[in-house]
Amino acid sequence: MLAKNSEIELNITALGNDGEGIGRSGDGITIFVPGAVPGDVILAHITKVKKTYAYGIVKEILTASKDRVEPKCPVASKCGGCTLQHLSYEKQLEYKQNKVRDCIERIGGIVDPPMEPIVGAENTYFYRNKAQFPVGTDKDGNPVIGFYRRHSHDVVNNPDCVIQAPVNGGIMKAFSEFMVENSLSSYNEETGKGLIRHVYTRVGFATKEVMVCIVANGKEIPNAAGLAERLSGVCKEHGLNLASLVLNVNREKTNVILGKETITLYGKDHITDKIGDVAFNISPLSFYQVNPEQTKKLYDLAAEYAGLTGNEVLWDLYCGIGTISLYLSRKAKKVYGVEIIPEAIENAKENARINGIINAEFFTGASEDVAPKLPTPDVIIVDPPRKGCDEKLISTILEVKPRRLVYVSCDPATLARDLKILTAGVFTLNRVRPVDQFIHSGHVETVVLLTRVN
Ligand code: SAH
Asked: Which tens digit of pLDDT belongs to each residue from 130-184?
């Protein structure tokens, strides 16, 4: 019997849902080991044992898999961010392709789905335009800004994160110095005391505009002008421009990072970025895709699947700041965008205006509540969060029966769950193509085309 704290030699044969290695003990127990990859033979230290499965950590790599690569990041094995940096990029793509296919077959009950090859990235490092750094306290009482250690809320400093925009290291360093000079305390999750909770940054890769958002357990910080000057200097060193410094107020005892109120300390209350030739204003509370290079490919794919000719009524549900609506508006007769975050819809309306787009209309509300009130669509695009589409929305889609339904998903398991219902009579699954938006992590984006059965 496998016991906690025992050690066992394991052949790693597969990768799990979060990119963790999987091996099997002699008595058939499945063991999940983060950081191990198929082809490795490892000595695993068992940390947790359940009835049919167990968890372990890599004690020693006895034989390294040929697919293993040296991670660029020195703290890759500690940080909770990149779970696959030690796996060759080719194998990361293969893993994601298979993960999407498996979900659609297993959860969606669809045999041999029409998979197209995953869209990989040219730039596999420094690709993210958004970072949220927790602020904690080190053992000497100094502020530490960085990442949560895997499976914990200890903050690990990592100024040289290799997937973020390189300016972030400088911003973190400047802000921790600012905290010390101005005696600003770090927030303590257990006591609910202390001021600074997170530092959140967004970089417009196309426009070079930077937003820094300080998330605080209070409504003001001292010497904001001094902070703006210092952060502007850091941005300039990277050829960027600090366009916006904001304070987000979050006084709740919660894991949710952002509060509802945001105060502008310097510059604009948003930054602008561009995808293709469409410009987008982005507020701190609004969603915006994190990998601009891959986002363009994602939207081009969604456009191809939508098959617009200029005569269609298009619904863009879960539209965020109206990116897909506006990107596709020139190919449709009329676009209706629906999004639950009011700030994002304000951005979407403004974004239509700044791009001179007059055939897009935007509504604040839940897609499932607003969709039934919209004019009948020819094509629907949905791009829900990880939990997938609401059941009520699926019913509405089955009733209005658009000619085409394009489903953009960031979680293949919920996508597959929804596909099962959508393909039970009304739609056929025509095309499936994963897009690698989140390189070095286990996450994968997927675009799917369903067409109406006549
Ligand atoms: N299509 C956009 C946004 C996708 S992210 C883009 O590509 O940028 C998913 C969005 O759905 C987020 O903006 C989130 O705020 C929004 N959302 C979450 N639940 C929703 C619901 N029930 N109805 C409408 N929008 C919702």
From this structure: 999 999 998 888 999 988 887 788 888 887 889 999 999 999 999 999 999 999 9
At a CB cut-off of 8 Å and minimum separation 6, what does 210 contact? 167, 201, 202, 203, 204, 231, 235, 240, 241, 242, 243, 244, 271
Q: Which atom of ligand 1 sits closest to the CA of residue 317?
A: 24
Amino acid at 239: G
> What mean pLDDT is predicted for residues 215-220?
96
Contact 163, 440 (CB under 8 A): yes
Ligand 1 atom at shortest distance from the alpha carbon of 288: 8
Cα(318) to centroid of ligand 1, in Å? 4
Tens of pLDDT along 32-68?
999 999 999 999 999 999 999 999 999 999 999 999 9
Q: What is the dihedral of CA 26, 29, 30, 34, to 10 degrees?
A: -80
| CA nearest ligand 1 atom 10, residue | 318
**Which residue has the CA at smallest separation from atom 16 of ligand 1?**
318
Q: Does 410 qualify as catalytic in the annotation? A: yes
Confidence (pLDDT) at 295: 97
> For the whole model, what pTM was predicted?
0.94
Residue 29's domain comprises 7-63
The last residue of one of the domains, among 213, 241, 275, is 275
Q: 231: domain CATH number?
A: 2.40.50.1070
Average pLDDT over residues 345-374: 98
Out of 340, 368, 396, give the residue to mutate to test ligand 1, the one with the largest number of ligand atoms within 8 Å of its CB. 340
